[in-house]
Amino acid sequence: MNCDFIAPYYWWIERLGMGRALEKRRRWFLPEIGDARRALVLGDGDGRFLRELLRRNPVVLADYVDSSRRMLELARQKAGTERVNYEQANALTLDFPREAYDLIATHFFFDCFDPDDLEILIGRVADSAKAGAQWIVSEFRTPNIPARSLVCALYLFFGITTGLRTRKLTDHRPILRTHGFRLIKASHSRGALVVSELWER
After folding, report:
1. pLDDT tens-digit readout, 79-137
2. In terms of CATH, what superfamily is 7-200?
3. Less packed terminus of the chain by CB within 10 Å, N or C?
4. Distance CA 10, CA 47 (A)
5. pTM for this one?
């Protein structure tokens, strides 16, 4: 998957397709993570969550990982370079520091992985989490036929524009539980099409 082509238009694509729903999901649990000191941010795209995290938390240091060079550039423009280490890398193969993070954020990121790869990803990231770490997840759900149809259309669009090969959502919840995380809170909108979750180790 390579988002370089759509990066300059991503804000418009998201706004036209989903309004502010995805942005609200990303920000939903920001008031509850003010004690974070070191964060790992995966899949934030153009950096809107990262910018808000830094604004609300004046001491947090963040590692921001994305495979798209152009998305990283947009994130730098929005959030700046102070207190952030930007890394262009594949999260499936990147060596994360062990037990380093007290906050992990994955926004609309798990939907890019098939079941086997998602198991690998969550396992690798979980190893980088401290005891008591919080993990914010924003993701799609398919509770009904309209939601399934929309998610299928999104997979088709991103398959054409980015080369994404995944075509089906994988339920991340049992994988997170397997790696020692428990769901603390959840909130959804758009008829449960999009959900925000707060997990804790």
Report:
1. 998 999 999 999 999 999 999 999 999 999 999 999 999 999 999 999 999 999 999 99
2. Vaccinia Virus protein VP39 (3.40.50.150)
3. N
4. 11
5. 0.93
